[in-house]
Amino acid sequence: MLKNALSTFAAAVLALLLVASCSSSGSGWVTVKGNKFIGPDGNELVFRGLCFSDPVKLVRDGQWNERYFAEAAAWGANVVRFAVHPANLNAMGWEETFAAMDQGIAWAKQHGMYVIMDWHSIGNLKDELYTSPMYNTTKAETFKFWRTVARRYKDEPAVALYELFNEPTVTAPEVGDCTWTEWRELQEQIIDTVRTYNPRAVCLCAGFNWAYDLTPVAAEPVRRENIGYVCHPYPMKRPEPWEEQWEADFGYVADTYPVICTEIGFCLEDEPGAHIPVISTDVYGEHITRYLEQKGISFTVWCFDPHWAPTLITDWNFTLSTQGRFFKAYLQQKASQTEK
Hints:
The protein is an alpha/beta fold. It has helices spanning 2-23, 55-60, 66-74, 86-92, 94-110, 139-152, 180-197, 208-211, 243-249, 282-295, 322-339; strands at residues 31-33, 36-38, 48-52, 79-84, 114-119, 122-124, 129-130, 159-163, 167-168, 202-206, 227-230, 259-264, 298-301. The strands form three sheets. An eight-stranded parallel β-barrel has the order 3-4-5-8-10-11-12-13, surrounded by six helices. It has a three-stranded mixed sheet with strand order 7-6-9. It is globular, with a radius of gyration of 18 Å.
């Protein structure tokens, strides 16, 4: 009981600090300096938080509410990720979806958390070919989405990070072809569009192989300022031992630029939804968190929903899954250390 009370108190303190910093004139924005995200207080900010499944799904499930955000904060999250799927956005309607997200942002601020806005598609944006109909979009719609976000939240520093495209991939035969040079140029065009309306936005750029591979950044980094890079290092992306391969595939980038792993996570082989590349055990949790901390890499864990694997919870009473037990304890521990 005492531990829960302390974690609730810590979340309340974080909320007051975030609201205060965001309300002071021009001081609330997260920025980039070298290889670090910098918070409103001028100090390094490491994001540690949770991936929400999708605002529209959560509305349909009756779970897009203050209780959901309060629980995320009680876990020790300082950031939550809104995974906006193109098909869901169009099904519920743009204005209705953005109105729901407005309320979600208010709840996040109330509980001391930042928001990552994520355009959640998987495939090849250049050729407009995708791995599932729920990810179908176009370049025109993608630019429209980011214009809408940048205009709507240009004065809202709590929407801290703009994740331009969830998981680019060109390795599956059904998704066409795209070079890194072409993908870099397309990301730069999206960034320029965002910056037309919100010059303070921090944009996040993902690599190929379902947002795992950042090796091309060494030779061809994105040619824009105030950006970070995204990786999704699920356990089966590489065999154990992981660390040396993680360093070569994405970790080295964190020596020069901010990196955030906007999806990490695992589930046991016999748990619901188990699939390649997420099957593992707590051993992965221990290794990935230790590695990310050593590198100063931020992260959000997939997924704070009982239906989309690997799940952190098994029902809407927030009963913990295997990885839920691990990451809840880890996030609460880090939040407690940050407050000291």
